[in-house]
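[Discussion] Sanity-checking designs against the backbone

I'm trying to build intuition for which residues belong where. Below is a C-alpha cell string of 171 positions. I'd appreciate it if someone posts a full sequence so I can compare it with mine line by line.
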C-alpha cells in the first residue's frame, strides 16, 4: 500500500512529468552509447526517432514547468501522446523496412547526407521516409529485438504513460 501511495504521489505532481522527460532523454543517451560503443552510424530513420524522443522529452518538461491541472493536464497529455505516436509511426516504418529489405533495395536511393544537401527540406524528408539501404541494415540487437523495435516499444510505453498522467484526477 505504501508503494502505491508513493507512486501516486510521484504521478500527481511535477515529478511525473520530469520522469517522462528523463526517460525520453535516457533513450537518446542509450542510443548514443550504443552508437559510440559499437562504432555504428545511425540511419536517417534512427535520427528522426531520436528527434521524436527529444521533442517528446521537451513536451514532458514543458508540462513539468507548467504543472497543469484540469483540462490543461489533458491538453499536455494529448500533445505528448501525439508526439509519441508520431515517433512510434517512424519506428514502425523502420521495422517494416528492416523486415522487407528486398522491396526497399529495389527503390533505394541516395544516402542521408546527399539527400539533405541536394533537395529542399520537404522533398528530403519524403525521400528519407521511403527508406534507404542504410535503414534496412540490422547492426545491433538485444534479446532478439532491433533498435527500431526497442524504440517502438519505448514510444508506445511513453504514450501510455502520457495517457496515465493525463487521466489523473486533481486532488
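Best answer:
Here's mine. Compare freely.
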Amino acid at each position: 500500500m505504501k508503494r502505491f501511495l508513493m507512486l501516486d504521489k510521484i504521478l500527481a505532481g511535477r515529478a511525473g512529468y520530469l520522469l517522462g522527460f528523463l526517460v525520453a532523454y535516457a533513450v537518446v543517451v542509450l542510443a548514443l552509447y550504443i552508437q559510440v560503443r559499437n562504432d555504428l552510424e545511425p540511419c536517417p530513420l534512427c535520427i528522426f526517432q531520436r528527434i521524436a524522443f527529444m521533442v517528446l522529452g521537451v513536451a514532458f518538461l514543458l508540462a513539468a514547468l507548467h504543472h497543469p491541472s484540469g483540462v490543461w493536464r489533458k491538453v499536455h497529455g494529448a500533445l505528448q501522446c501525439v508526439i509519441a505516436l508520431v515517433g512510434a509511426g517512424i519506428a514502425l516504418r523502420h521495422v517494416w523496412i528492416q523486415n522487407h529489405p528486398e522491396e526497399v533495395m529495389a527503390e533505394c536511393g541516395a544516402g542521408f547526407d546527399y539527400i539533405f544537401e541536394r533537395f529542399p527540406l520537404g522533398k528530403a524528408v519524403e525521400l528519407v521516409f521511403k527508406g534507404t539501404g542504410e535503414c534496412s541494415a540490422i547492426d545491433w540487437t538485444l534479446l532478439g529485438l532491433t533498435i527500431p523495435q526497442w524504440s517502438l516499444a519505448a514510444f508506445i510505453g511513453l504514450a501510455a504513460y502520457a495517457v496515465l498522467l493525463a487521466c489523473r484526477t486533481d486532488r
